[in-house]
Amino acid sequence: MKSYAGVDLTKLPGAVAARRKPGKAAVVFAAMPGSVETLEGIVAYVAGDAIVTGETGERWPVGRELFSRHYTPAYALKMYENGGYFRKEITVTALLPGDAFEVPVPGGTLKGRKGDWLVQYVPGCYGIVQGELFNGLYDIEERQI
């Protein structure tokens, strides 16, 4: 299984820029350290991290700094309060590896299957998005990396 440990996706052939579509998410902020089972593996989080639940029920942790750049509170909610949030439209780097792969993340290793996308949100911050979810959440931009 190919590992993408520490790889900068912007330097890889086949990587594309993808725009994440805006959307809704339910968020709970962790009161203490723990872990959450994502679709791709178990990921640890620290107190204060956001535990995000997407529109199809998938869950994943997001550190506070990244969370504040990628989400905005819905309605009368204040930032870092539990409740509904909107995903901001952002551009990421994405790669469709083709075969099974893995990428280490803090507190675990995510495992991707054939057809899953490896997404780099910022240098050193990765996620794996299942193929069918990727197509609903992202638009591939015309420019290649």
Explain how this protein is built:
The protein is built from 2 helices and 15 strands. It is mainly beta and 145 residues long. The longest helix is centred in the middle third of the chain and has 7 residues, at 64-70. The model has no long low-confidence stretch (mean pLDDT 91).
Question: Would you kindly provide a brief summary of this structure?
Answer:
The protein contains 2 helices and 15 strands.
Considering DSSP H and I runs of 4 or more, what fraction of the residues is helical? under 10%
How do the strands of the widest beta sheet line up side by side? 14-13-10-2-15
Strand content: over 45%
- The chain-level mean pLDDT equals 91
Which class best fits the helix and strand makeup? mainly beta
Task: Determine the number of helices (DSSP H or I, runs of at least 4 residues).
Answer: 2
Which radius of gyration do the C-alpha atoms yield?
A: 15 Å
Largest sheet: 5 strands, antiparallel
The number of strands is: 15
Characterize the overall form: globular
N→C terminal distance: 24 Å
Order of helical and strand elements: EEEEEEEHEEEEEEEHE
The poorly predicted ranges are none
